Amino acid sequence: MRGAAWIAFLIICVVTLRQRSVAQDSIPGWHSNLEEARKLAESTGKPLFITFRCVR
Amino acid sequence: MNRVDIARFEFDFDTTWAAFFTDSKLRIYSRYGGRDEHEPESRLSKSSLLQTMRESLDAHKLARATVTGGAEAVPPAAPIWHPEPISSTTPLDIPLLKKSHNGCVHCHQIREYSLLQAYHDKRFQREMLFTYPLPESLGIEVDRVHGHRVAKVGDGSPAADAKLSSGDIITRCAEVPIRSDLDLRWALHRLPPTSKRVTLLVERQMSNLGDSAARSTEIVLSLPNGWRQSELSWRKSSRSVPSDWGFRGAALAKFERREANLPESGLAIRVLSIKPRGFAQALGLHKGDVITGLAGDTRERSLDRLRSDMLRRFAPGDEVRLTVLRSEQTLELSGKFPAWFTEETTVP
Lengths: 56, 348
Hints:
The structure holds two protein chains of two kinds. Chain A contains three helices and two strands; from the N terminus they run αβααβ. By secondary structure, chain A is α+β, with helices and mostly antiparallel strands. The longest helix of chain A is centred in the last third of the chain and has 11 residues, at 34-44. In chain B, β5 and β6 form a beta hairpin. The chains are: A alpha+beta, B alpha+beta. At the A-B interface, α1, α3 and β2 of A face β1 and α1 of B.
Protein backbone atom coordinates (compact mmCIF):
# COMPACT_ATOMS: atom_id res chain seq x y z
CA MET A 1 0.00 0.00 0.00
CA ARG A 2 2.75 2.42 0.88
CA GLY A 3 4.41 1.66 -2.42
CA ALA A 4 1.22 2.51 -4.24
CA ALA A 5 0.88 5.71 -2.24
CA TRP A 6 4.42 6.56 -3.20
CA ILE A 7 3.64 6.22 -6.88
CA ALA A 8 0.46 8.25 -6.52
CA PHE A 9 2.04 11.23 -4.80
CA LEU A 10 5.69 11.47 -5.52
CA ILE A 11 6.83 10.89 -8.98
CA ILE A 12 8.90 12.62 -11.53
CA CYS A 13 10.07 11.08 -14.72
CA VAL A 14 12.99 12.31 -16.76
CA VAL A 15 12.74 10.97 -20.30
CA THR A 16 14.56 11.90 -23.42
CA LEU A 17 11.76 11.91 -25.97
CA ARG A 18 9.70 15.04 -25.86
CA GLN A 19 6.42 13.41 -26.78
CA ARG A 20 6.78 10.95 -23.95
CA SER A 21 7.52 13.78 -21.57
CA VAL A 22 4.37 15.59 -22.67
CA ALA A 23 2.32 12.44 -22.28
CA GLN A 24 3.67 11.79 -18.82
CA ASP A 25 3.10 15.36 -17.70
CA SER A 26 -0.58 14.69 -18.19
CA ILE A 27 -0.52 11.92 -15.55
CA PRO A 28 -1.19 13.28 -12.05
CA GLY A 29 1.95 13.16 -9.93
CA TRP A 30 4.36 12.72 -12.84
CA HIS A 31 6.63 15.53 -13.92
CA SER A 32 9.31 15.92 -16.54
CA ASN A 33 10.80 19.07 -15.02
CA LEU A 34 13.08 18.12 -12.18
CA GLU A 35 13.26 21.59 -10.64
CA GLU A 36 9.48 21.96 -10.53
CA ALA A 37 9.13 18.53 -8.95
CA ARG A 38 11.88 19.32 -6.47
CA LYS A 39 10.12 22.52 -5.37
CA LEU A 40 6.87 20.62 -4.99
CA ALA A 41 8.62 18.02 -2.86
CA GLU A 42 10.11 20.80 -0.74
CA SER A 43 6.74 22.40 -0.09
CA THR A 44 4.92 19.13 0.63
CA GLY A 45 7.69 17.30 2.49
CA LYS A 46 7.33 14.37 0.12
CA PRO A 47 10.28 12.39 -1.28
CA LEU A 48 10.96 11.96 -4.98
CA PHE A 49 11.07 8.95 -7.25
CA ILE A 50 13.24 9.83 -10.24
CA THR A 51 13.63 7.54 -13.22
CA PHE A 52 15.92 7.61 -16.22
CA ARG A 53 14.89 5.58 -19.20
CA CYS A 54 16.66 5.30 -22.50
CA VAL A 55 14.04 5.37 -25.25
CA ARG A 56 16.19 5.13 -28.34
CA MET B 1 20.93 13.01 -20.59
CA ASN B 2 22.66 16.16 -21.89
CA ARG B 3 22.22 18.33 -18.79
CA VAL B 4 21.76 15.64 -16.15
CA ASP B 5 24.14 15.83 -13.21
CA ILE B 6 25.78 12.44 -13.75
CA ALA B 7 27.93 12.81 -10.64
CA ARG B 8 24.77 12.84 -8.52
CA PHE B 9 22.61 10.58 -10.66
CA GLU B 10 25.33 8.04 -11.28
CA PHE B 11 24.17 4.63 -12.42
CA ASP B 12 25.35 1.90 -14.76
CA PHE B 13 25.05 3.82 -18.02
CA ASP B 14 24.91 0.63 -20.09
CA THR B 15 21.48 -0.10 -18.67
CA THR B 16 18.32 1.35 -20.16
CA TRP B 17 16.48 2.14 -16.95
CA ALA B 18 17.39 3.27 -13.43
CA ALA B 19 15.53 4.87 -10.53
CA PHE B 20 16.50 7.05 -7.60
CA PHE B 21 14.71 7.78 -4.35
CA THR B 22 15.64 11.20 -3.01
CA ASP B 23 14.52 14.00 -0.77
CA SER B 24 13.77 17.51 -2.03
CA LYS B 25 17.47 18.40 -1.84
CA LEU B 26 18.14 15.45 -4.17
CA ARG B 27 20.01 13.57 -1.47
CA ILE B 28 19.75 9.92 -2.46
CA TYR B 29 18.16 7.31 -0.23
CA SER B 30 18.51 4.52 -2.74
CA ARG B 31 19.28 3.54 -6.30
CA TYR B 32 17.28 0.83 -8.04
CA GLY B 33 17.93 -0.99 -11.34
CA GLY B 34 20.95 -2.57 -12.97
CA ARG B 35 21.46 -5.65 -15.08
CA ASP B 36 24.02 -8.30 -15.94
CA GLU B 37 24.71 -10.57 -18.92
CA HIS B 38 21.35 -12.31 -18.52
CA GLU B 39 17.95 -10.87 -19.43
CA PRO B 40 17.79 -7.06 -19.02
CA GLU B 41 15.27 -7.32 -16.17
CA SER B 42 16.62 -10.45 -14.51
CA ARG B 43 17.90 -8.55 -11.46
CA LEU B 44 14.64 -6.61 -11.03
CA SER B 45 11.34 -7.59 -9.48
CA LYS B 46 8.17 -5.85 -8.38
CA SER B 47 8.65 -7.15 -4.83
CA SER B 48 12.23 -5.88 -4.55
CA LEU B 49 11.17 -2.47 -5.93
CA LEU B 50 8.42 -2.27 -3.29
CA GLN B 51 10.93 -3.32 -0.63
CA THR B 52 13.26 -0.50 -1.69
CA MET B 53 10.34 1.95 -1.73
CA ARG B 54 9.32 0.96 1.80
CA GLU B 55 12.85 1.32 3.12
CA SER B 56 13.36 4.64 1.35
CA LEU B 57 10.10 5.97 2.83
CA ASP B 58 11.23 4.83 6.29
CA ALA B 59 14.55 6.61 5.78
CA HIS B 60 12.72 9.75 4.63
CA LYS B 61 10.52 9.73 7.73
CA LEU B 62 13.55 9.22 9.94
CA ALA B 63 15.40 12.08 8.25
CA ARG B 64 12.44 14.43 8.68
CA ALA B 65 11.95 13.42 12.30
CA THR B 66 15.63 14.03 12.98
CA VAL B 67 15.48 17.50 11.39
CA THR B 68 12.27 18.55 13.14
CA GLY B 69 13.36 17.07 16.47
CA GLY B 70 10.18 15.06 16.85
CA ALA B 71 9.62 12.14 19.15
CA GLU B 72 11.32 9.80 16.71
CA ALA B 73 14.42 11.99 16.59
CA VAL B 74 17.04 9.35 17.21
CA PRO B 75 20.40 9.62 15.46
CA PRO B 76 20.44 6.76 12.95
CA ALA B 77 23.02 3.99 13.36
CA ALA B 78 23.68 3.81 9.61
CA PRO B 79 23.94 6.76 7.22
CA ILE B 80 20.58 7.80 5.77
CA TRP B 81 21.76 9.06 2.39
CA HIS B 82 24.25 7.87 -0.16
CA PRO B 83 27.50 9.88 -0.06
CA GLU B 84 27.19 13.21 -1.86
CA PRO B 85 29.29 13.93 -4.97
CA ILE B 86 32.08 16.46 -4.51
CA SER B 87 30.92 18.49 -7.50
CA SER B 88 28.36 18.27 -10.24
CA THR B 89 29.17 17.22 -13.78
CA THR B 90 27.21 16.66 -16.96
CA PRO B 91 27.97 14.60 -20.08
CA LEU B 92 28.96 17.84 -21.83
CA ASP B 93 31.92 18.09 -19.45
CA ILE B 94 33.52 15.19 -21.36
CA PRO B 95 35.59 17.12 -23.95
CA LEU B 96 35.30 14.57 -26.79
CA LEU B 97 31.56 14.28 -26.31
CA LYS B 98 31.13 18.04 -26.29
CA LYS B 99 33.27 18.38 -29.42
CA SER B 100 31.96 15.46 -31.43
CA HIS B 101 28.41 14.73 -30.41
CA ASN B 102 25.25 16.44 -31.58
CA GLY B 103 21.74 15.98 -30.25
CA CYS B 104 20.50 13.88 -27.38
CA VAL B 105 23.10 12.04 -25.35
CA HIS B 106 22.04 8.47 -24.65
CA CYS B 107 23.05 6.77 -21.42
CA HIS B 108 25.48 4.31 -23.03
CA GLN B 109 27.19 7.14 -24.93
CA ILE B 110 28.23 8.71 -21.63
CA ARG B 111 30.21 5.61 -20.83
CA GLU B 112 31.54 5.21 -24.34
CA TYR B 113 32.82 8.78 -24.47
CA SER B 114 34.25 8.49 -20.94
CA LEU B 115 36.30 5.48 -22.07
CA LEU B 116 37.29 7.15 -25.33
CA GLN B 117 38.40 10.24 -23.41
CA ALA B 118 40.46 8.07 -21.08
CA TYR B 119 42.23 6.45 -24.06
CA HIS B 120 43.01 9.85 -25.56
CA ASP B 121 44.20 11.17 -22.21
CA LYS B 122 46.41 8.05 -21.87
CA ARG B 123 44.94 7.22 -18.48
CA PHE B 124 42.89 4.19 -19.58
CA GLN B 125 43.26 1.01 -17.54
CA ARG B 126 41.55 -2.28 -18.26
CA GLU B 127 39.76 -2.19 -14.90
CA MET B 128 37.78 0.82 -16.18
CA LEU B 129 35.81 -1.62 -18.33
CA PHE B 130 34.51 -3.45 -15.28
CA THR B 131 31.98 -1.17 -13.64
CA TYR B 132 29.26 -2.05 -11.15
CA PRO B 133 30.81 -5.32 -9.94
CA LEU B 134 28.47 -8.19 -9.22
CA PRO B 135 28.11 -9.31 -5.58
CA GLU B 136 28.32 -12.83 -7.01
CA SER B 137 32.01 -12.25 -7.68
CA LEU B 138 32.47 -12.17 -3.90
CA GLY B 139 30.22 -15.19 -3.39
CA ILE B 140 27.07 -13.21 -2.52
CA GLU B 141 23.93 -14.29 -4.31
CA VAL B 142 21.23 -11.75 -3.59
CA ASP B 143 17.60 -12.73 -3.11
CA ARG B 144 15.88 -11.18 -6.16
CA VAL B 145 12.54 -11.04 -4.33
CA HIS B 146 13.95 -8.93 -1.50
CA GLY B 147 16.79 -7.12 -3.23
CA HIS B 148 19.52 -7.03 -0.57
CA ARG B 149 19.01 -10.17 1.47
CA VAL B 150 21.62 -12.88 1.01
CA ALA B 151 20.05 -15.91 -0.68
CA LYS B 152 23.17 -18.03 -0.96
CA VAL B 153 26.86 -17.83 -0.14
CA GLY B 154 29.30 -19.43 -2.57
CA ASP B 155 31.53 -22.21 -1.22
CA GLY B 156 35.10 -21.07 -0.69
CA SER B 157 34.23 -17.47 -1.61
CA PRO B 158 35.32 -14.29 0.23
CA ALA B 159 31.76 -14.10 1.62
CA ALA B 160 32.01 -17.63 2.99
CA ASP B 161 35.45 -16.92 4.48
CA ALA B 162 33.97 -13.85 6.24
CA LYS B 163 31.10 -16.01 7.57
CA LEU B 164 28.32 -14.21 5.76
CA SER B 165 25.19 -16.36 5.93
CA SER B 166 22.12 -16.88 3.79
CA GLY B 167 19.30 -14.83 5.31
CA ASP B 168 21.61 -11.96 6.32
CA ILE B 169 20.28 -8.60 5.18
CA ILE B 170 23.03 -6.27 3.99
CA THR B 171 22.27 -2.78 5.31
CA ARG B 172 25.56 -1.01 4.69
CA CYS B 173 28.58 -1.50 2.44
CA ALA B 174 31.55 0.72 3.31
CA GLU B 175 29.79 4.05 3.99
CA VAL B 176 26.80 3.44 1.70
CA PRO B 177 23.39 2.53 3.16
CA ILE B 178 22.04 -0.46 1.24
CA ARG B 179 18.37 -0.68 0.31
CA SER B 180 18.63 -2.48 -3.05
CA ASP B 181 20.85 -4.69 -5.20
CA LEU B 182 21.99 -1.63 -7.14
CA ASP B 183 22.95 0.16 -3.91
CA LEU B 184 25.28 -2.73 -3.14
CA ARG B 185 26.75 -2.68 -6.64
CA TRP B 186 27.21 1.11 -6.53
CA ALA B 187 28.98 0.79 -3.17
CA LEU B 188 31.32 -1.85 -4.63
CA HIS B 189 31.76 0.19 -7.82
CA ARG B 190 33.01 3.26 -5.94
CA LEU B 191 35.57 1.45 -3.79
CA PRO B 192 39.07 2.75 -4.55
CA PRO B 193 40.97 0.56 -7.05
CA THR B 194 43.54 -0.34 -4.39
CA SER B 195 40.96 -1.65 -1.89
CA LYS B 196 41.84 -5.03 -0.45
CA ARG B 197 38.77 -5.44 1.75
CA VAL B 198 35.31 -4.03 2.36
CA THR B 199 33.14 -3.89 5.46
CA LEU B 200 29.48 -4.87 5.35
CA LEU B 201 26.92 -4.28 8.07
CA VAL B 202 24.31 -7.03 8.10
CA GLU B 203 21.12 -7.69 10.02
CA ARG B 204 21.18 -11.30 11.14
CA GLN B 205 18.17 -13.15 12.50
CA MET B 206 18.93 -14.58 15.93
CA SER B 207 16.80 -17.69 16.31
CA ASN B 208 17.74 -18.07 19.97
CA LEU B 209 16.30 -14.62 20.70
CA GLY B 210 12.91 -15.21 19.08
CA ASP B 211 11.51 -15.03 15.58
CA SER B 212 11.71 -11.27 15.13
CA ALA B 213 15.02 -10.58 16.86
CA ALA B 214 17.87 -9.44 14.62
CA ARG B 215 21.35 -8.29 15.46
CA SER B 216 23.62 -5.98 13.48
CA THR B 217 26.92 -7.62 12.65
CA GLU B 218 29.97 -6.26 10.87
CA ILE B 219 31.52 -8.51 8.24
CA VAL B 220 34.86 -7.83 6.58
CA LEU B 221 35.30 -9.29 3.11
CA SER B 222 38.64 -9.70 1.37
CA LEU B 223 38.70 -8.56 -2.24
CA PRO B 224 40.69 -11.03 -4.38
CA ASN B 225 42.51 -10.07 -7.56
CA GLY B 226 40.15 -9.51 -10.47
CA TRP B 227 37.05 -9.40 -8.27
CA ARG B 228 35.53 -6.53 -10.29
CA GLN B 229 35.57 -8.45 -13.55
CA SER B 230 32.35 -9.60 -15.14
CA GLU B 231 30.99 -10.51 -18.54
CA LEU B 232 31.16 -7.53 -20.94
CA SER B 233 29.47 -8.84 -24.07
CA TRP B 234 26.06 -7.33 -23.19
CA ARG B 235 27.51 -3.85 -22.63
CA LYS B 236 26.89 -1.55 -25.54
CA SER B 237 29.84 0.58 -24.46
CA SER B 238 32.22 -2.32 -25.07
CA ARG B 239 31.64 -1.92 -28.83
CA SER B 240 33.86 1.15 -28.60
CA VAL B 241 36.79 -0.60 -27.03
CA PRO B 242 39.29 0.71 -29.49
CA SER B 243 41.87 -2.03 -29.54
CA ASP B 244 42.15 -2.79 -33.20
CA TRP B 245 40.93 -6.36 -33.34
CA GLY B 246 41.06 -6.08 -37.10
CA PHE B 247 38.56 -8.75 -38.04
CA ARG B 248 34.89 -9.46 -38.35
CA GLY B 249 33.47 -12.86 -37.63
CA ALA B 250 30.42 -14.90 -36.73
CA ALA B 251 29.71 -18.08 -34.83
CA LEU B 252 29.07 -21.07 -37.07
CA ALA B 253 25.54 -22.40 -37.50
CA LYS B 254 24.87 -26.10 -36.96
CA PHE B 255 24.91 -26.99 -40.66
CA GLU B 256 28.21 -25.10 -41.07
CA ARG B 257 29.68 -27.12 -38.23
CA ARG B 258 28.63 -30.34 -39.94
CA GLU B 259 30.15 -29.18 -43.22
CA ALA B 260 33.41 -28.35 -41.45
CA ASN B 261 33.43 -31.66 -39.52
CA LEU B 262 33.30 -29.78 -36.24
CA PRO B 263 31.50 -31.05 -33.13
CA GLU B 264 27.97 -29.74 -32.46
CA SER B 265 29.19 -27.69 -29.50
CA GLY B 266 32.39 -25.84 -28.73
CA LEU B 267 34.01 -22.65 -29.95
CA ALA B 268 33.63 -22.12 -33.69
CA ILE B 269 33.84 -18.58 -35.05
CA ARG B 270 34.49 -18.00 -38.72
CA VAL B 271 36.65 -15.02 -39.71
CA LEU B 272 34.68 -13.09 -42.32
CA SER B 273 37.14 -10.33 -43.10
CA ILE B 274 40.56 -9.09 -42.07
CA LYS B 275 41.57 -5.46 -41.76
CA PRO B 276 45.13 -4.47 -42.72
CA ARG B 277 47.56 -3.75 -39.90
CA GLY B 278 45.23 -4.97 -37.15
CA PHE B 279 45.66 -7.48 -34.36
CA ALA B 280 44.17 -10.27 -36.48
CA GLN B 281 46.68 -9.73 -39.26
CA ALA B 282 49.53 -9.61 -36.76
CA LEU B 283 48.37 -12.97 -35.40
CA GLY B 284 48.31 -14.43 -38.90
CA LEU B 285 44.53 -14.95 -39.09
CA HIS B 286 43.10 -15.42 -42.59
CA LYS B 287 39.66 -14.81 -43.97
CA GLY B 288 37.79 -18.11 -43.74
CA ASP B 289 39.68 -19.40 -40.68
CA VAL B 290 37.51 -20.89 -37.95
CA ILE B 291 38.63 -19.99 -34.42
CA THR B 292 38.21 -23.07 -32.23
CA GLY B 293 40.20 -22.18 -29.12
CA LEU B 294 41.43 -19.24 -27.06
CA ALA B 295 44.51 -20.22 -25.06
CA GLY B 296 43.21 -23.77 -24.90
CA ASP B 297 39.68 -22.76 -23.90
CA THR B 298 37.24 -24.32 -26.38
CA ARG B 299 33.89 -23.37 -24.77
CA GLU B 300 31.19 -22.30 -27.21
CA ARG B 301 30.74 -18.53 -27.43
CA SER B 302 29.57 -15.73 -29.66
CA LEU B 303 32.14 -13.32 -31.12
CA ASP B 304 31.07 -10.67 -28.56
CA ARG B 305 31.66 -13.12 -25.73
CA LEU B 306 35.02 -14.12 -27.17
CA ARG B 307 36.01 -10.43 -27.24
CA SER B 308 34.78 -10.06 -23.66
CA ASP B 309 36.89 -13.04 -22.59
CA MET B 310 39.96 -11.61 -24.30
CA LEU B 311 39.45 -8.27 -22.56
CA ARG B 312 39.15 -10.04 -19.22
CA ARG B 313 42.22 -12.20 -19.71
CA PHE B 314 44.73 -10.08 -21.55
CA ALA B 315 46.40 -6.70 -21.30
CA PRO B 316 48.55 -4.96 -23.90
CA GLY B 317 51.73 -6.95 -24.54
CA ASP B 318 50.35 -10.26 -23.24
CA GLU B 319 50.83 -13.32 -25.43
CA VAL B 320 47.52 -14.40 -27.00
CA ARG B 321 47.18 -17.88 -28.44
CA LEU B 322 44.38 -18.89 -30.81
CA THR B 323 43.60 -22.31 -32.22
CA VAL B 324 42.19 -22.11 -35.74
CA LEU B 325 40.97 -24.52 -38.38
CA ARG B 326 42.24 -23.68 -41.87
CA SER B 327 41.69 -25.95 -44.85
CA GLU B 328 41.05 -28.89 -42.52
CA GLN B 329 44.32 -28.26 -40.70
CA THR B 330 44.51 -27.16 -37.08
CA LEU B 331 46.96 -24.34 -36.45
CA GLU B 332 48.16 -22.52 -33.36
CA LEU B 333 48.57 -18.76 -33.87
CA SER B 334 50.07 -16.41 -31.31
CA GLY B 335 50.87 -12.73 -30.98
CA LYS B 336 50.94 -9.79 -28.61
CA PHE B 337 47.70 -8.28 -27.35
CA PRO B 338 47.45 -4.80 -28.93
CA ALA B 339 47.88 -1.50 -27.14
CA TRP B 340 44.89 0.48 -25.87
CA PHE B 341 44.85 3.13 -28.50
CA THR B 342 42.58 4.72 -31.02
CA GLU B 343 42.48 7.76 -33.20
CA GLU B 344 38.68 7.71 -33.18
CA THR B 345 37.11 10.79 -31.61
CA THR B 346 33.48 9.71 -31.90
CA VAL B 347 31.47 6.66 -30.96
CA PRO B 348 29.04 4.98 -33.39
